[in-house]
Automatic annotation (TrEMBL):
Keywords: Signal. Residues 49-271 form the Solute-binding protein family 3/N-terminal domain. Belongs to the bacterial solute-binding protein 3 family. Residues 1-23 form the signal peptide. PROSITE patterns: PROKAR_LIPOPROTEIN, SBP_BACTERIAL_3. One of its GO terms (cellular component) is cell envelope. The keyword Signal applies. This is Bacterial extracellular solute-binding 3 family protein. It is found in: Cell envelope. SMART domains: PBPb. The keyword Protein transport does not apply. It holds the Pfam family SBP_bac_3. The lineage of its organism: Bacteria, Pseudomonadati, Pseudomonadota, Betaproteobacteria, Neisseriales.
Length: 275
């Protein structure tokens, strides 16, 4: 996902996980070596325990359900990958700002938290597996509004957007009239109330909202083409090519056998593992 400034539920957290710089990529030098227990590849080959850094407070990707169990789309994908590889997973919950720094320092074997390696600094320090989810811009309108079929159709319509966000800029560039809001929750409320025609935001954030609010009276009006979507994968330190290949193989196997599709439908109402 590209950097954006949004507020409310998942949308605010998407920015934290996928945009901007962080402590893990600002420090100089190569990643720290793997922990004393051995390399990631050795743990995978020996069917050992792999430590995974995640937030645990980032619904619907990684969070605790009502019983206190750690779950979410990213968490359940990780468990499915572990089952494919025959390994055990130990989740270590940490704040986003410390997550990639912890990976670099060897506290974790990998990170799963909707991370896209969108900056040169991240790409120089970390590698990413095959993508297990994709996201990009999406427009939501009222269910009975059929005016938006392609991006050009928003010209002249009113868009509820935060003025400083990439999505506000996107709406202005497309010729929409901006109705200023403080965040995604307010934007969706204005669309429901017919005070705005539509709103742009991240597709996973909006799909999460639509899944949790089936009676909202809103629908997906337009989704960005595949070429404009970014993927999230398992993040590991550089020089773990063989281990990463095994992880990516497991991701692809889960895509092929329908597991990723099933998990996407469970948490988002549709398959988010394909562009």
């Amino acid at each position: 996902m590209f950097k954006k400034i949004v507020l409310g539920s998942v949308a605010a957290l998407v920015l934290a996980a996928c945009g901007g710089e962080d402590a893990g990529t600002q420090a100089s030098g190569a990643p720290a070596p793997q922990t004393a227990a051995g390399s990631l590849l050795e743990r995978i080959n020996n069917k050992g325990t792999v430590t995974v850094g995640t937030e645990g407070t980032y619904a619907p990707f990684t969070y605790h359900d009502e019983s206190g169990k750690l779950t979410g789309y990213d968490v359940e994908v990780t468990r499915a990958v572990a089952e494919k590889l025959g390994i055990q997973i130990k989740f270590e919950e940490t704040q986003w700002d410390a997550m990639l720094a912890g990976l670099k320092a060897g506290r974790f074997d990998m990170v799963v938290n909707q991370v896209s390696l969108t900056t040169p600094e991240r790409r120089a320090t970390f590698d990413k597996s095959a993508d297990y989810s994709y996201s990009g811009p999406m427009a939501v309108s009222r269910q009975n509004d059929t005016r938006i079929k392609q991006l050009a159709d928003v010209k002249g319509l009113s868009a509820a957007q935060t003025l400083s966000s990439n999505y506000g800029e996107m709406a202005q560039k497309a010729g929409a009239e901006i109705v200023p809001v403080d965040g995604m929750a307010q934007a969706l409320a204005l669309v429901r109330q017919k005070r705005a025609d539509f709103t742009f935001n991240d597709s996973l954030a909006l799909l999460d909202y639509l899944k949790k609010n089936p009676d909202s009276g809103l629908k997906t009006a337009w989704t960005a083409p595949a070429g404009e979507k970014l993927g999230a994968g398992f993040i590991v330190n550089k020089n773990n090519d063989e281990a990463l290949a095994k992880i990516s193989g497991a991701v692809e196997a889960l895509r092929k056998d329908g597991t990723l599709k099933k998990l996407g439908e469970q948490f988002f109402g549709e398959d988010v593992s394909v562009k």
